[in-house]
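In this supplementary section we document a worked example of the pipeline. Step one takes a protein sequence of length 257 as its only input; no multiple sequence alignment statistics are reported here. Step two produces a three-dimensional model, which step three serialises into structure tokens for compact storage. The input and output of this example are shown verbatim.
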Amino acid sequence: MNSKKGSILKNMTKDLVVEKNTQNEIVDNRSFALRVENLSKIYDSAAGRVVALDNVSFSIKKGEFVSVVGPSGSGKSTVLNMVGALDRPTSGKIYIDGIDIFSLNDSEIATLRNRRIGFIFQSFNLINRTSVHKNVKLPGIIAGMSSDDANLRAMKILEALDIADKKNQKPINLSGGQQQRVAIARSLINNPSIILADEPTGNLDTKTGEDVFDMLKMLSHKFKRTIIMVTHNPELAESTDRSILLRDGRIEKDVFN
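The serialised model returned by step three reads:
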């Protein structure tokens, strides 16, 4: 990242530590990894106007493990796309570490996404033509990490997740559970503020899924990682710190487990 972008993000973080929210209340951003304020997303389609999100607001503290649940079409994936800065909202704001992410330009958003957000996907999204080790270190290289530092950090994470013995293999030759461990390792390489997990156990058998979930729970509780997980599994959702139920683009329920 060049010095200009780094300065912009640094100054924004400093300026937004303490501010007023839309209800004119003082908010201390230092305790929150994420704040979503009055978020709406409307799509225009051939069938007409589709309201995917309707004035959604919530905050997530640093170190919380939060599940997002709801029926198909409830807005779960749209929320994840917005928080992951993969799409812009029609209206509303999202703050990550106090930064109003959609006040940034596209290049700055890409930098923030790489450095502050880790992604874990249901289908793993690994690069099968290269090794496990290179898959994990790649986001670090993109973020400007030296090759030596990226190699060292990738190996430490792979060792911590008990998958270092597969470092030279290609992901396609691993089991589903092993591939998801690699995906989790990749999500950690840049020490992100938030990890977004989209149905991380969806393609796994029950036992392997439980193992992957336990790993995410360990990352949250032991290492204070902030994790937002979309899931259709009610048992897993109830085992997170908190569950947000979406229905028809609105929050129907927000409960602490």
